[in-house]
Structure formats: structure tokens, C-alpha cells
Amino acid sequence: MEVPQEEREQKLWLAERAGAVLASIPVENGDVVVDFGCGAGAYALPAAKMVGRKGRVHAMDCELDNMEPVASATRKNLNAIHGDGTAHIPLDDESCDVGLLYDVLQKLDDRRGAMEEMHRVIRPDGVLSVYPMHLDARTIRAEVISAGFRYRNDYAGLVMHFVRK
Asked: Using CA atoms, how far apart are residues 100 and 56, in angstroms rounded to an integer?
């Protein structure tokens, strides 16, 4: 698997392989997924197909214009959430199987808060998947571990998967 060297090319390369990235977590039929910073839904929309009718995807972003494709999707298992720009995730404790933090951490004033919120909403043994674009992967890995996760593996050396303790 040849991975592009430039970050912008990596982002596009990963988005083109969204299904493979999600399968590496794995996102499965019946799962509940939260995509924090979903943007246009490059991962939320394929995840909604993967979780099927029994699953659910909560796609959250603070920029309503960016999430138009998600908000206008007709999938019954896709819940578009317009966030308030803080780390707060308006979901119940331990209500999700998988959390996605893709290309969003560099935009947050409170990265630690976002990781703690993911820890709160992901069930024990659930997975947090992180793509730390524009940030040092070693630093992010240490921050996620300190928020109560353990490193499991990665996808193409770009997307890190962690398990909630």
C-alpha cells in the first residue's frame, strides 16, 4: 500500500478509501458510531451504510454549511448534530461502539476535552479512531492514551485505532 507523502494528498487518499478505513476499525452492522467533526460526511455516510438498519451514526460538526450532505441525507440511521463548537457531545454515556476523530483535532481549542468526551460516550472496549492531520502523531497518541484509551493498531500508518479501557 503506497501512501502519499503530503498531508493534503493523504487526506484525499484516505477519503477515497473510507470504506477500507472504517472496515479496519471495524465498523459493523448494528454499531453506533459518532463522527466528531464530520464535515461533509466522507466517513459518516459510508459508516451509515455499514451499520445498517440496526445501527446508527451520529455525525456532528459545528459548521452547518460544511455538513450539508450529511444533513440532507435521507438515511434513517444517520443523525446530523449541529455542534456548538465545544468539545461537548450531546449523547448518553457509553452509548457508542465507535468514535471517529478525523482531521479535526487541530481545529479544537480543547483537544483533551474532546478525547474525554469520546471516552465518556464510547462503551468499554469500544474503539476510538483518530486521524491526526497537521499534528504530531506521537503527541496525539500519548494524549489519547492519557484520556483512558489503549493503542491497538493503525491503518496505513495514518489512522490510529484505540480501545476504551
From this structure: 14
